[in-house]
Amino acid sequence: MRLHTHEWGTGDRIAVLVHGIMSDHRTWHRVAPVLAGKGYRVIGVDLRGHGASGRGEYSPETWADDLVETLPERPELVIGHSLGAMALAGAVERLAPARAVYCDPAWDIRRKLVEASAYFAVFKSANRAMVKSLNPRWDEADVDVELATLADWDPASARVLPGIYAVSRTPARPVVPSLVVLAGAGELVRPGLDEELVRRGFEVRTVEGAGHCVYRDDFDGFMGALDGWV
To answer: What InterPro entries does the entry give (predicted)?
Structure first.
């Protein structure tokens, strides 16, 4: 599937941004302009089932294949958050970026969240008060974006998650130089995964105090964690 994309900047280096579940390219509204200011042409995608992209079969393989179908080969930088990190990990060997950054990746998540993931569809009808209560550190612009992206999200993409996480989705090794940015206060990633990732060859940095949506919870902390990678 050819995905909907949005671009920022006109630089000669390409950076790719891949959002998490329930979101779309608009979630990067603060990150993308900073990268564009550093000389990147930034491409934000809407994954299958999200934003303005099409709907269809949902699986790690289709999300990854869509990225390969849509994006140029050999970008300078790719950044994926949560579900987007899983999709990127499946596509990274074929995309062959110079560097990859995985933000609180949905590779091996806590069992209680796997069991609850089929019920993520309830967030489709979340109102402003609910979004703010769950994300007290977000500014109003990020709350606006969340409500807009939820409206354009297909909740069927969440119903497949329990089956997906019947096995770990953690890559055996980094195919390209890879940084994992973890949320210090996040509850997605299972305990001990950080140490396992280091053993497998990933560089791991943690933004202390930040929740799962690291770049919205602590924008400065997230950008600081990218030092040397952008």
So the answer is: AB_hydrolase_1, AB_hydrolase_fold
